[in-house]
Amino acid sequence: MAKDRASALSGSIYFRDRVQQRIVSNILLTKVERGGNKILAHVMTIFAIHENICGQENKLLVSGTTQDIIEYQDNVALFKERLCICTPDIITDSIVYPI
Fold it and tell me: Domains in the chain, please, with CATH?
């Protein structure tokens, strides 16, 4: 019985060979704020994630933009804020890893 369940699970859509590819655009600098010894850079990128299952044709999983605020202070750059805006047309049987 355990072998039957293991066989059924390994054949399900969630255990197929999957390859995901993330494509990211160049960084677009939208705004720069200077205050004292720190600089806030507002940047935007566009991304798309494609998936290939078992050697079939690539499918678009999700696309969208990221809008980030990066803080430069004392020669260190840190993300202060990250906003990820995704399009709603995600394929239902897909497994999207954290963006």
Answer: 17-86 (3.10.450.50)
